[in-house]
Amino acid sequence: MKNDGTMINAYVPGRGDLSAADQDLVARRARALGPAYRLFYETPVHLVRGEGVWLYDGDGNAYLDTYNNVASVGHCHPAVVAATAKQAAILSSHTRYLHDTVLDYAERLLATFPAELSHVMFTCTGSEANDLAFRIARAHTGGTGFIVTENAYHGVTYAIAGMSPSLGEGVALGEHVRTVRAPDPLRMQGDLGAAFAAEVQAAIDDMLRHGIKPAGLIVDTIFSSDGVFEGPAGFLAPAVAAIRAAGGVFIADEVQPGFGRCGDTMWGFQRHGVVPDMVSLGKPMGNGYPVAGLVMQPRVIAAFGAKARYFNTFGGNAVAAATAMAVLEVIESEALQENARVVGGYFADGLRGLAGRFECLGPLRAAGLFLGQEIVAGGPLKADAATCARIVNGLREARVLISATGPRSNVLKIRPPLVFSKANVDHFLAAFEGVLAKV
Predict the structure, then answer these.
(1) Four-point Cα dihedral 149, 153, 156, 161, nearest 10
(2) Mean pLDDT, rounded, of the chain
(3) What does R_g of the chain's alpha carbons equal in angstroms?
(4) For residues 109 and 295, is the Cβ–Cβ distance under 8 A?
(5) pLDDT band at residue 36 using 50, 70 and 90 as cut-offs
(6) Checking phi first, is residue 244 left (phi over 0); if not, alpha (psi -120 to 50) or beta?
(7) Confidence label for 2 from pLDDT (cuts 50, 70 and 90)
(8) Which of 109, 200, 280, 287 has the fewest CB atoms in 10 Å of its CB?
(9) Under 8 Å between Cβ of 225 and 405
(10) What DSSP line would sit under 34-68, residue for residue?
(11) A Pfam family for this UniProt protein (predicted)?
């Protein structure tokens, strides 16, 4: 059965070891929020506080957060909290008035990109950023066809949910959306770049046969929902060339791999030696404050800008800009990109060491502090979702938070805050080893 990404590691009502108080909370949640929401873990975690890489429940128990890229510079980072509070006490206004803060941040952010990417438009969420990219791509190219990977996630607006197959079969793909296999080196033969480009070209050819003009290729540049595929560096370039030759644009979704997480580069697309037409940003940008954006080459916005005005009440407001500026300053002042490179390498080495002792640990894919560990049964191509689920929930019982991803639900998605240390890695590895010994 096709994987429903909303159900990986999801709580099933009536199961788990919930206290009476938390059972009441789950019931209240169902009454107030309705049936479409999901909770993590067989026994959900009731959190009340966060600090750095740690989250705390009401009894003061500390949980190591090895999953949360939203709080990219650590939960409740004091410099970010102070910047948010300071600006909120002065002015919270939108981009229809002149104010310095949004321009200061825009210029600082754009300086981290190649010179060709010199415009930025602000939104509140990555979903909105990708929805805006969708609209701009259609206006720029005159096309309507979009290509995504088979288990991609790009957001929850109507158009973008239709380009997010990981939401499951209950969410229909857009009529002009085509899917391609993820760049999985285990399942694609020969040169990975050529193989992935061939998938994209086949999707383009199918569109053209059906009278659909291609508008764009959008990929999360770490392919996180597809199972985390980080390399080899440069393999994306032929696929980008293919979509551009067909008149479409390349949109790099950097919501998850961006802001230094991959270690060697600030942005995931830089690992492939390509300059996207547009780059979408989201979750880590505000360390939990809802701020996101779309960075682009000026030529792609010309047609859209000539015909349509764009306005977002909260996108780019002064508080959002001040918060995002503080996040960027922390990444730079605390050398968190370099930390991701060094600690991520240490993390990968530790996982490889355990793989020699536990047969269920299959291929590991890693770039900085973004790691995907396959859980297998008897061989690298034999996914073991059941054992993966037991590991995730076993770690939760050991107060280490992690989740799973991929179309076969068998990849541990390891994506901690960028302030993760080698000591934190050791803590994780000790807990992981203990869980592996039991499963």
Answers:
(1) 20
(2) 95
(3) 21
(4) yes
(5) confident
(6) alpha
(7) very low
(8) 109
(9) yes
(10) -SS---BSSS---EEEEEBTEEEETT--EEEESS-
(11) Aminotran_3
Token pair listed for 54: 């740690």
Residues with Cβ within 8 Å of 114's Cβ and at least 6 positions away in sequence, in order, are: 270, 275
- Cis check for the bond before 380: say yes or no (omega within 30 of 0): no
Does 49 have pLDDT greater than 70?
Answer: yes
Region 387-413: mean pLDDT is 96
Mean pLDDT, range 139-161, rounded to an integer: 97
Global pTM reads: 0.95
Q: Specify the pLDDT at position 216.
A: 98
Give the Cα separation of 35 and 428 in Å (integer).
Answer: 33
Q: Alpha helix locations (H) across 246-384? A: 298-307, 318-333, 336-355
Tokens representing 106? Answer: 């825009």
For tokens 């107060």, name the residue: 399
Contact call for residues 364 and 372 (beta carbons, < 8 A):
yes
- Which domains, and CATH codes, for the chain? 5-42+335-414+422-433 (3.90.1150.10), 78-333 (3.40.640.10)
| Alpha-carbon span 280 to 130, nearest angstrom | 6
214 pLDDT above the threshold of 50: yes
CA neighbor of 71 nearest in space, from 397, 369, 367: 369
